[in-house]
């Protein structure tokens, strides 16, 4: 089936070590740790897990001297593990001090995230721009970025928007013959804060292609409105994310709804899905969701996708549910190995269907499909490979036999990579 291609909004390419954001680079997946960065072992472990799950950039909070001192050690341990994922430092309030007092931290990080609303206020400064209450601190952080040739994300957030700027825009709005809605003025404040800060960063000497912008809010419609406007008013590379998306299905659905609309319009060069993990839940879930958003929209391919029917009264057993779940888990677990060995496996499609009604049809459309027997059907599961029925599985060992068929298909179909040097 052909699709209307998505035309990406033009933006300069921002290099974060080897990872490109914007330009014609694919949309990049990033994530953030929730460990105490001062805990070197715990943070290294979580960054490694996020990177293994597919996060191409990982952000860590740098909020204290202990955290800043830990950063180069975390980088060194990741390097020793062969994990090259670039680390982004998230700074608020005291970033100017941490970046200047801990040069090894400034050097070890690949990018700095600066929130203009939380840069930190210096009442003594007489040279403050509107929207930049902590101008001295902002200039100090940009100075460090220039010194170490690091890109910066100017990340404005609804929850920490500069209140002086909001008050100024509200006052100006009140004087208009037809004042705008409060929500509209607040959205404008987000955009103005980001654009003014970016302009100021460039005036300080940071180059245009070292700046990424974000304006995160927690409501889907607000996010869409803000990013449409921001995208129209500048060409900076954009980081997309619905902030405080929430837990479980609510967080996933809200993030997907917001990001999908914007990505479809070509807006967004890197994404993060801000999920709150369930107690004991895996932090890596946010990476899986981000990848699945991009893959289901046809923007990128990360891991083979399983098409499974929802099941209905025609198949009352849980056999097909278990098979669908097992094969999806197997494909995701196997992908790091296959990625090293073969090219293109991530584009493979697998169908697991519950009965004869849609089973053969969907199975033929996938690279590999299996149509399990529904209630009352003969206990046989035909397997289709590239549209052709190849074998019929029977008995209690269907799951293992199907997995073996998938393994053999991968080995036969995809081009083996050359062994990497060293
Ligand atoms: S393929 Fe069969 S079991 Fe699955 S939803 Fe359709 S009718 Fe129901």
Topology:
Blueprint: E1 14-16, E2 19-21, E3 28-32, H1 40-53, E4 57-61, H2 65-80, E5 87-91, H3 95-101, H4 103-108, E6 111-114, H5 135-147, E7 152-157, H6 163-174, H7 182-203, E8 211-216, H8 220-233, E9 237-240, E10 246-247, H9 248-264, E11 270-271, E12 275-276, H10 285-296, E13 305-308, H11 319-341, E14 342-343, E15 349-353, H12 359-365, E16 368-371, E17 381-385, E18 388-393, H13 398-413, E19 415-416
Parallel strand pairs: 3-4, 3-11, 4-5, 5-6, 6-7, 7-8, 8-9, 9-11, 10-12, 13-15, 15-16
Antiparallel strand pairs: 1-2, 14-19, 16-17, 17-18
Helix pairs in contact: 1-2, 3-5, 6-7, 7-8, 8-9, 9-10
Q: What attributes characterize this protein structure?
A:
422 residues; alpha/beta; 8-stranded parallel β-barrel; 5-stranded mixed β-sheet; 19 strands; 42% helix; binds iron/sulfur cluster
Describe this structure as you would to a colleague.
By secondary structure, this protein is an alpha/beta fold. It contains 13 helices and 19 strands. The strands form five sheets. The protein has an eight-stranded parallel β-barrel with strand order 3-4-5-6-7-8-9-11, surrounded by five helices. Strands 13-15-16-17-18 form a five-stranded mixed sheet, with helices on both faces. Strands 1-2 form a two-stranded antiparallel sheet. Helix 3 (95-101) packs parallel to helix 5 and helix 6 (163-174) packs across helix 7 (182-203). The radius of gyration is 25 Å and the shape is globular. Iron/sulfur cluster (SF4) binds next to loops. Iron/sulfur cluster is lined by residues 309-312, 314-315, 353-355, 357-359, 374.
């Amino acid at each position: 089936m052909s699709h209307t291609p998505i035309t990406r909004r033009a933006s300069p390419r921002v290099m974060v070590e080897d990872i490109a954001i914007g330009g014609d680079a694919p949309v990049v997946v990033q994530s953030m740790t929730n460990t105490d960065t001062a805990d070197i072992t715990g943070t290294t472990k979580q960054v490694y897990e996020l990177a293994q799950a597919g996060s191409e950039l990982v952000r860590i909070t740098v909020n204290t001297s202990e955290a800043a001192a830990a950063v180069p050690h975390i980088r060194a341990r990741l390097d020793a593990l062969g994990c090259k994922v670039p680390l982004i430092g998230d700074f608020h309030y005291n970033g100017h001090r941490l970046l200047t007092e801990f040069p090894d931290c400034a050097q070890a990080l690949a990018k700095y995230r600066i929130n203009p609303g939380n840069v930190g206020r210096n009442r003594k400064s007489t040279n403050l721009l509107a929207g930049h209450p902590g101008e001295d601190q902002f200039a100090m952080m940009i100075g460090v970025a220039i010194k170490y040739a690091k890109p910066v994300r100017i990340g404005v957030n609804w929850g920490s928007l500069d209140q002086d700027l909001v008050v100024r825009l509200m006052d100006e709005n009140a004087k208009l013959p037809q004042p705008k809605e409060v929500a509209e003025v607040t959205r404008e404040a987000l955009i103005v804060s980001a654009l003014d800060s970016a302009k100021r960063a460039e005036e300080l000497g940071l180059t245009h292609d070292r700046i990424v912008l974000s304006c995160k809010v927690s409501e889907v419609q607000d996010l869409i409105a803000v990013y449409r406007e921001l995208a129209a008013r500048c060409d900076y590379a954009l980081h997309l994310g619905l902030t405080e998306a929430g837990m479980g299905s609510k967080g996933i659905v809200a993030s997907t709804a917001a990001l999908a609309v914007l990505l479809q319009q070509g807006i967004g060069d890197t994404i993060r899905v801000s999920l709150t993990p369930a107690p004991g839940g895996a932090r890596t879930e946010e990476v899986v969701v981000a990848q699945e958003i991009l893959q289901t929209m046809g923007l990128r391919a990360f891991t083979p996708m399983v098409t499974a029917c929802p099941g209905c009264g025609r198949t009352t057993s849980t056999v097909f549910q278990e098979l669908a779940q097992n094969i999806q888990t197997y494909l995701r677990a196997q992908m790091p190995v296959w990625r090293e060995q073969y090219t293109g496996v991530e584009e493979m499609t697998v169908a697991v269907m519950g009965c004869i009604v849609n089973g053969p049809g969907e199975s033929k459309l996938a690279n590999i499909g299996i149509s399990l027997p529904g209630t009352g059907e003969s206990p046989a599961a035909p397997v289709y490979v590239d549209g052709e029925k190849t074998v019929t599985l029977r008995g209690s060992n269907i799951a293992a036999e199907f997995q073996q068929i998938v393994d053999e298909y991968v080995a036969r179909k995809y081009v083996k990579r050359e062994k990497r040097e060293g």
